Amino acid sequence: MEAAPKPNYIPSLQDLCLPVVIDHIQRDVYSNFPDKLTTKLSDLLFDNLHIPHLAIPEKIMEKIKKHFSISHLTLGQHNYDFFSERQRALQPQMITKLELLSLKNSLITKPNPNGKKKGTCMYYQGAVLYSEFFVGKSLNIVLFLTKNLPPECRQILEALVLQGTSVLFPQGWIRDLHKSFPALKVLDITGCSMANTEFKLLCDTYKNLTHLSIGKTKVNDLTGIEALTELTYLSLEDLEYKKEPNFYSVFLLEKLVVLDISSNTSSASTAKLLTKRKTSLSNLQFLACCGNELTDEIVGVLFQQNPKLQNMAVVSKYILKSADVLS
């Protein structure tokens, strides 16, 4: 059921035309499709034509290969063959943002058409990455990226999202990633395993990051994060810090605006750690702390210590800054 339009809302020309264009592409109505779409239009149409975890229909894929110039690309299960020789786009894709979702480390055998097993491959919930990209049980993600992305993307890729479930990358992968993609400003590795030493290397190499998500990576020492002086967004979802000094480098992030310390448990103590030092996060405006142990006292101190903090996400609701909270 579609959401009711807002009162006095006047739809834009794009709002009116987009559903019609998408429908016509899906039904293959157009006889004279433009040779090459602009990047902005390509991104808009691609986002509306595909669902990351569903296969792209062959006819639509043909249109994408021939006419689209995509800069923002999100792929999930059944869509990794976008990089295959059979599906690879004919137009040069100048990717500046790439999202790879539902990565897994489950090595299985791929059956050939005759029913005989031949070779090994990696299925990411239906998508295939062959064993050439693996070092033992570790996914050589840098090799995968450099082999499948056009060389022109290496200097322009600014946002990389690698989300999975306990995905293993080989030792030193951050160093290799920086050599191949030095321009990253946004990095999300939620659910990918990372050692504290690798995290420290990340902070030493990608000092221009503005957004960083390391949730569910098991990093438990943030020492070195102060090198990320441009960081405005930080996600530490489901991470625990048993030693207080291992967390306190966060207070050195002077430009931090959004901090996510949420947890799937109901007993996380990270919010309490934020109150144990009188140092403030001078630009913090939003704090997500679902699953943390919270009391009225902790909430009050968080608002008092952080002068620009306006709201907090707690479970499924927000706590807004108010006189009652501060009293």
TrEMBL record:
Q: Which Gene Ontology terms of cellular component type are present?
A: Cul2-RING ubiquitin ligase complex
The UniProt entry, under InterPro entries, shows:
LRR_dom_sf, Zyg-11_UBL_adapter
Q: Which domain of life is it from?
A: Eukaryota
Q: Can you name this protein?
A: Uncharacterized protein
| The species this protein was found in | Caenorhabditis brenneri (Nematode worm)
